[in-house]
Amino acid sequence: MAKVTGFLEFGREKQPYRPVEQRLHDWSQVMQPWEAKTLNEQAARCMDCGIPFCHQGCPLGNLIPDWNDLVYRDRWEEAIERLHATNNFPEFTGSLCPAPCEGACVLGINDNPVTIKAVELSIIDRAFAEGWVKPLPPAQETGKKIAVVGSGPAGLAAAQQLRRAGHAVTVFERDDRIGGLLRYGIPEFKMEKNVLDRRLEQLTAEGVVFRTNAHVGVNVTVESLRKDFDAVLLAGGSTAPRDLPLPGRDLRGVHFAMDYLTRQNRRLEGDLLPEEPEFNANDKHVVIIGGGDTGADCLGTAHRQQARHIAQLEIMPKPPGTRGGDNPWPEYPRVYRIASAHEEGGERVYAVSTKRFIDDGTGAVRAVEIVSVEVKQQDGRMSFEEVPGSTREIPCELALLAMGFVAPERTVTSQLNLKLTDRGNVWRDKAWMTSEKGVFTAGDMQRGQSLIVWAIAEGRAAAASIDTYLMGQTDLPAPLA
Questions:
Q1: Based on the domain organization, do 120 and 257 belong to the same domain?
Q2: Angle formed by the axes of helices 64-72 and 116-130, to 10°?
Q3: Does the CA dihedral 118-122-125-131 come out positive or negative?
Q4: Contact 187, 265 (CB under 8 A)
Q5: Does 135 reside within a domain?
Q6: Of 130, 160, 192, the domain-final residue
Q7: pLDDT value at position 273?
Q8: pLDDT value for 47
């Protein structure tokens, strides 16, 4: 694959980012394209490893060695065909996925892995620029109608697959624009919305029908979906945020991360929102509780709103720089990572727990009280013990809760009386069907909060099962079957 000795000749290169001092003054994508020579060399590092464990690392089963080889040989149009064979939206995963494929790369045993994610993004960007991405409407109609509830990556992937199989597909989205978390949860500097819009144009041209402001269970009845459609796919995501019920939680300036990110994304969409100073980080001390990707999204957003100081809190200790003995290849590496937002500034505070939010005397937050903690393991269970004498305050005029999501919204599930798992997610069988016949589910709604690559893979797999349910057989690929 690629150049036989490429991994010996070339080291891993990081995809270039725009300079910090430049990107902090706008909301544009921080990543820059590679020069052709560097990209060729990075693709050449994909070795002839015999068993490509990157396939195992990728829930989509992406044909990674194939398209690395094609990029190295400058056969770009074939590369996008291989990429689209397993992934409907490589521009989404190439921008947003944490790349478990790279963690499983064989080269990663004793060297830095291949830059799979960045090569993937380069392929799809080239494909759009060259006009190779075209609508693929079905050759014939089946007469079957399917409702997809939710327009995030799982719902969109399923909708495209089912439409290409010849079914009439309608996507219901409760918000005023299509895209779900991709639209209002992901900041522009990570993925500009024109990237989403150009893909939605393709789906529309293929015949997928989109209905916005359509909140199933509220202004669209569950009964109407069951009556008007032959099958229903629930892909509404895991949207209930994890709260932090501490003293002072109800103070002004303490908000869920997604409420904060959504408002900024709406402004950039051109919405005229009322002035809400408590949601603006400008000249404020900001505390972000949660050290994951959503926290980093809040960090980059607060930087661009010109916060005075930002602290991102994480209850776990700082990860090691390299794999630990309990985290061998090809597991996903639990190592210290630096997102683009971390390069831009801010303080990362590890091994701390929040105790309370402190009132400024007017009902607004002025500080957060935290305490250092130590991780303890007993009988295979993890607990956190406070370090005596470590309690302290840090200034805070905007606190953002970015601790993930715990469950899907209950509106539809309760009205359909669906069976749930012990964790509160929607139960489904091996064919992606819920406890209600003809109602299927995919994505975070049934899996719990997870990665975009899992959402797309599950949307594709559920589409194949729905096609089989309606037609008795399917030609659609099912990556997770």
A1: no
A2: 60
A3: negative
A4: yes
A5: no
A6: 130
A7: 87
A8: 86
Per-residue buried b or exposed e for 285-316, using 16+ beta carbons within 10 Å of the residue's own CB: bbbbbbbbbbbbbbbbbbbbbebebbbbbbbe
What pLDDT, on a 0 to 100 scale, did the predictor assign at position 481? Answer: 58
Residue 436: both structure tokens together: 């209600």
What integer pLDDT is reported at residue 1 of this predicted model?
A: 58
In the beta sheet, which residues pair with residue 210? 171
Cα separation, 135 vs 202, whole angstroms:
5
Total-model pTM: 0.96
Evaluate whether 358 touches 365 at the Cβ level (below 8 Å). Answer: yes
According to DSSP, the residues that pair with 367 across neighbouring strands are 358, 395
CA distance 30 to 32: 7
| Residue 135 structure tokens | 């609508």
Q: How many CA atoms lie within 13 A of 134 on its CB side?
A: 8
Q: How far is CA 12 from CA 19, 38, 91, 116, 118, in A?
A: 20, 10, 21, 10, 11
pLDDT tens-place string over residues 10-22: 999 999 999 999 9
- Residue 222: strand, helix, or coil: helix
Q: What is the pLDDT of residue 339?
A: 95
Residue 64's φ and ψ, nearest 5 degrees, are -65, -50
Give domain status of residue 104, yes or no: yes
CA distances to 162, 173, 439 from 209, rounded to whole Å, are: 12, 11, 19
8 Å CB contact between 351 and 372: yes
Lookup result for tokens 């209002």: 184
- The token pair at 423 is 């964790």
Residues (pLDDT < 50) of the chain are none
Structural domain for 85, as ranges:
6-130
